[in-house]
Amino acid sequence: MMYNPYQQPYMPQQRQEVIRVNGRNGAEAYQMAPNSSILLLDETAPIIWLKTTDGASYPTITGYEITPLKVQSGQVNNTEFLALEERIAKLEEVIANGKSNITNAKPTVKTIKSSQ
Predict the structure, then answer these.
(1) What is the spatial distance between Cα 74 and Cα 69, in angstroms, rounded to a whole number?
(2) Positive or negative torsion for Cα 14, 65, 35, 57
(3) Dmax over Cα atoms in the chain, in whole Å?
(4) CA distance 86 to 93
(5) Cross-strand bridge partners of residue 53
(6) What is the mean pLDDT of residues 28-56?
(7) Which domain holds residue 35?
(8) Looking at residues 68-77, what average pLDDT do you find?
(9) How far apart are CA 39 and CA 22, in angstroms?
(10) Is 8 part of a structural domain of the chain?
(11) In the chain, pLDDT over 90 holds for what percent of residues?
């Protein structure tokens, strides 16, 4: 059998899961190896616990509140739609008439004083 240096060795798939705990006490009770870190999902509140251990397996636990993201549907409600239609109509009128409100505006002139 010939050795192929470009062929990747077979790596079995590891099972992945979310680890759930009951409150801070559950996070504290979760056993870990030295120099490790893990996120633990709290089943009793919308909290994720970050647990880390140092070289002596001494744990540090920090809790983070989580909230679901509000995903926008990409749809426009009726009020936004009517406002958008009104703006489009004004733009079409400006383009059709070849006018702009900008031409009627007075130019702003700023005076700069030199300190000589």
Answers:
(1) 15
(2) negative
(3) 89
(4) 11
(5) 59
(6) 95
(7) 20-65
(8) 75
(9) 13
(10) no
(11) 42
Identity of residue 52: T
**Residue 57 falls in which region: left (phi positive, over 0), alpha (psi -120 to 50) or beta:** left
Cβ atoms 39, 45 nearer than 8 A: no
What are the residues whose beta carbons fall under 8 Å from the beta carbon of 63, sequence distance 6 or more?
24, 27, 42, 47, 48, 49, 50
Average pLDDT of the chain?
82
In 3D space, the residue among 31, 12, 13 whose CA is nearest the CA of residue 21 turns out to be 31
pTM comes to 0.51
In whole angstroms, what is the distance from residue 110 CA to residue 107 CA?
Answer: 10
Torsion of CA 39, 40, 41, 44, to 10 degrees: -150
Look at the block and give the residue holding tokens 């616990």: 49
Whether residue 48 lies inside any domain: the answer is: yes
Domain assignment present for 57: yes
Q: Is residue 92 part of a domain?
A: no
CB 59, CB 24: distance < 8 Å: no
What's the structural domain count of the chain? Answer: 1
